[in-house]
Description:
Elements: E1 2-6, H1 11-22, E2 27-31, E3 40-41, H2 47-54, E4 57-62, H3 76-97, E5 101-107, E6 124-126, H4 137-156, E7 160-165, H5 176-181, H6 184-191, H7 199-216, E8 218-223, H8 234-239, H9 241-248, H10 252-259, E9 269-271, H11 274-279, H12 288-297, H13 304-309
Parallel strand pairs: 1-2, 1-4, 2-3, 4-5, 5-7, 6-9, 7-8
Helix pairs in contact: 1-7, 2-3, 3-4
Amino acid sequence: MSILVTGSAGHLGEALIRTLRAQGRAAVGLDLVASPYTDLVGSIVDRAFVDRAMRGARAVLHAATLHKPHVATHARQDFVDTNISGTLNLLEAAAASGVEAFVFTSTTSTFGDALVPPPGAPAAWITEDVAPVAKNIYGATKTAAEDLCRLFHRKQRLPCLVLRTSRFFPEPDDDPQRREGYSDANLKANEFLYRRADVQDLVDAHVLAIERAPAIGFGRYILSATTPFLPEDLAELRADAPAVVRRRVPQYEETYARLGWRMHASIDRVYVNARAREELGWRPRYDFAHRLESLRTGEDPRSPLTQSIGVKGYHGDAFADGLYPVEG
């Protein structure tokens, strides 16, 4: 029996395949794109292809998706086809095959407009109890796919866990203003305070989810580096983020000063991973404190897995922006 990994040519999919095989587990990679980690090349929109791929699968790690950077280059129907219909095909096949665990990789982008409070309000404390407010077709289709997972657990008793990952892409930021205002390393380090994770930690959570899914049944979990912030920091985070960071992580100032880096003036949301740590037994290692210690000692703060995978990109074309077009 094997673990079927969809999206095996992508950042997370490749990381999952690498890790599972290093652990001696049978893993089958599926993707629309051929790669050294893809065993089955085809589309999850093709139900017959999905049925064949599901044969012999004990568990499914469903990481294949159209992402936010595709919003400006793909039709809304493409998102519906891949993110909703493709997920439905996999769920149908998994339930019919008696799969023991279905783990769906979702995104904190599902929260959409709930992530940005109105001017003057405190930063948002984002837990799984916050209701998503779709901002674009990407978030809307990922939320719909999450609900399909819940439905298949309710109706077919298929153990399904939804993992809402925060940003982990190694590419430069998709916001031109952020790219102009901060070096890439500075920006990513800041994000480990409130909205970023290392791919190694995400892989660890997915592997734990396979084992915990049968006992849990259904659950949604935020995956992001553990924040040093507390709820009582939220108002000041919005008004004076550096003051809060000085209080919670005082050693950051010396390192940032030496590197000529800057902290964000304001932080508008904080992702909270407490439920994943409690219910999955997840212990993320790559947080802001780890980043600072690595910078202090001159080591690469990224996990070896992140370094090995490198940058993949999302589009085969070049754009006027230089990276990718992004629609809000």
